[in-house]
Amino acid sequence: xxxxxxxxxxxxxxxxxxxxxxxxxxxxxxxxxxxxxxxxxxxxxxxxxxxxxxxxxxxxxxxxxxxxxxxxxxxxxxxxxxxxxxxxxxxxxxxxxxxxxxxxxxxxxxxxxxxxxxxxxxxxxxxxxxxxxxxxxxxxxxxxxxxxxxxxxxxxxxxxxxxxxxxxxxxxxxxxxxxxxxxxxxxxxxxxxxxxxxxxxxxxxxxxxxxxxxxxxxxxxxxxxxxxxxxxxxxxxxxxxxxxxxxxxxxxxxxxxxxxxxxxx
Length: 265
Ligand SMILES: [Zn+2]
What we know:
Number of domains: 1
CATH topology: TIM Barrel
Bound molecules: zinc ion
Distance between the termini: 5 Å
Shape: globular
Strand content: 5-15%
Structural class: alpha/beta
Order of helices and strands: EHHEHEHEHEHEHEHEHH
CATH architecture: Alpha-Beta Barrel
Helix content: 40-55%
Strand order of the largest sheet: 1-2-3-4-5-6-7-8
């Protein structure tokens, strides 16, 4: 797939890095404020060339995908409404919904979904794991370190993208899990501790250098106001990416996300 062919790096650093944002939502409250063209214009302004998009309901993702199929990577959000967020692991109708929706054949992942410790054994979660393996796609999971490990243990073939690096897990915990589970990738949306005050934290920096193929950056437009902030958020991410060697910065900025989505050639 000639997905990355449009990008040919010019020598020289610092240089504006293209960003593959691993965590975008285009959910119902966003639609009237930012119609698809306006949302895509914000991505332009932020230097986000590609984005993994999941939305509540999923029709938001399809709206963006229809306008920019080379740019939007659809991830299937299992929530039909926000109410599903707290009940989905015990609701078998979610599994059939996701199974039928996947027949479109456009999705590269299932998620982002929220999973608490002790919930990974449910029939719906096990069903997601098997669907993801069968379709060759990944699971985008918002969980803590305990639950992500429970999810990874269900089947070693399952690929998991860990949202927000567990939100509060520190570099030691993240590093231990990356060492143990080769199918785990990590995205860093909302993790301001990576570069407090704009300065890359040394412990995170050494983890990025130790596992340069496993991290990606993201915004998380979980409320509409995050769309307003997206260019500033991405400018902040670029500022700490520039503190890494160029090759590692490129891996975090877009190459790892492209590979996870099967978009490299
Ligand atoms: Zn999210």
